[in-house]
Design brief:
The chain is an alpha/beta fold. The protein has 14 helices and 12 strands. It starts with a strand and ends with a helix. It binds pyridoxal-5'-phosphate.
Length: 394
């Protein structure tokens, strides 16, 4: 049975070119990048190259890129260290209700430390309104953190506008760009971004490597204490193979962005149109226009997301329901609740995220499977039976 992998928002396959670029840094050039002897030179050079590649892509300076162990660490760092450095100035932070848990749970932790957090509402498509941000800013607001693109419903936020509002009020602006980087062009200057989080494994790079972009002049302190790596702001021996792989993945993502995204967009829209025309009582979630090219998120009434996942898995199809972090719990996705879906509908959600190797045949196989599974599950549902009876009585 062919595996059909449609969970690229959870993680991606490491590209073969990325693995190839990384290998010599395990076997041959294993020297510590911070040493003086020449074995370390190759490592140092490779780290410098990756940092320069990433900086160039964002319109940033190489010394503004700080490697971390992933997106969650970058998010934690941005929030906690800003709170620490600017806590004297004010104790108010603004974010949105649809952020990743790396942001939301950090905000909840900060609330316990005496900070006040405003969680902005989003509209029915998951968009944060710049006007709502403007109204929420207070004299004691020290940070705004709004994600670039949502990991569940794929909505791309108006980051340049939101950044401009924060800038106008002299408030620092952070964005979790883990889903957007490599799929959407980003320019930190044009978009008024002061800090940005990213992660390697969401763009066909390795797991366990990410970075936080910190604009020069932002007074953020060290998060991991120890050695002098990353300009004394993030201690720990550099993950050289990870950094090299990340750099390679970014290089590939940027070189292929236009062609890859337009291909994925077509497949995405094809999938959405087949679902909408062939499966009744289905609702597409997220913004239709401002949407990640690879994201399909849909709710099927009278069906449980978890049941669909298990049955899809039996057919070799990997998908997700809610976010990976909430899977296994009975709570419906906080993102679907925030866009106004009632609990019972939010429970029937399915997220399908395409990759660079997804084919039209795989999409066809998957939609056929979903159609059959949804019908099968509805046939067993007393709620659906009631609903059909009521429809017939009308
Ligand atoms: C995956 C993800 C993260 C976490 O990144 P890790 O590298 O897995 O720690 C943070 N934010 C968003 C939006 C994500 O999709």
């Amino acid at each position: 049975m062919e595996l059909i992998y449609l969970d690229n928002a959870a993680t991606t396959r490491t590209a073969p070119e990325v693995v190839e670029a990384m290998l010599p840094f395990f076997t041959e050039y294993y020297g510590n990048a911070s040493t003086v002897y020449s074995l370390g030179d190759k490592s140092k050079e490779a780290v410098t190259n990756a940092r320069e590649t990433i900086a160039r892509v964002l319109g940033a300076k190489p010394e503004e890129i700080y490697f971390t162990a992933g997106g969650s660490e970058a998010d934690n760092w941005a929030l906690k260290a800003t709170a620490e450095a600017y806590g004297e100035k004010g104790k108010h932070i603004i974010t949105s209700k649809i952020e990743h848990h790396a942001i939301l749970h950090t905000c909840q932790w900060l609330e316990k430390q005496g900070f006040e957090v405003t969680y902005l509402d989003v509209d029915e498509n998951g968009l944060v309104a710049p006007e709502a941000l403007e109204q929420a800013i207070r004299p004691d607001t020290i940070l705004v953190s709004i994600m670039f693109a949502n990991n569940e419903i794929g909505t791309i936020e108006p980051i340049a506008e939101l950044g401009a509002v924060a800038r106008k009020h002299g408030v620092l602006f952070h964005t979790d760009a883990v889903q957007a980087f490599g799929q959407v062009p980003i320019d930190v200057d044009a978009m008024n971004i002061d800090m940005l989080s990213s992660s390697g494994h969401k763009l066909n790079g390795p797991k366990g490597i990410g970075f936080l972009y910190i604009r020069k002049g932002v007074k953020i302190r060290s998060f991991v204490h120890g050695g002098a790596q990353e300009r004394k702001r993030r201690a720990g021996t550099e993950n050289v193979p990870g950094i090299v792989g990340f750099g390679k993945a970014v290089e590939l993502a940027v070189a292929t962005m236009e062609e890859r995204c337009s291909r994925e967009r077509k497949l995405r829209d094809y999938m959405i149109s087949r679902i909408e025309s062939e499966i009744p009582y289905a609702r597409i979630n997220g913004d239709r226009e401002n949407r990640l090219p690879n994201n399909v998120n849909v709710c099927f009434r009278f069906v449980e997301g978890e049941s669909m996942l298990i049955m899809l898995d039996m057919k070799g199809i990997c998908a997700s329901s809610g976010s990976a972090c909430t899977s296994g719990s009975l709570d419906p996705s906080h993102v679907l609740l925030a866009i106004g879906l009632p609990h019972e509908i939010a429970h029937g959600s399915l997220r399908l995220t395409l990759g660079d190797d997804t084919t039209r045949e795989q999409i066809d196989t998957t939609v056929d499977a979903i159609r059959d599974i949804v019908q099968h599950l509805r046939d067993m549902s007393p709620l659906y039976e009631d609903f059909v009876k009521k429809q017939q009585e009308k």
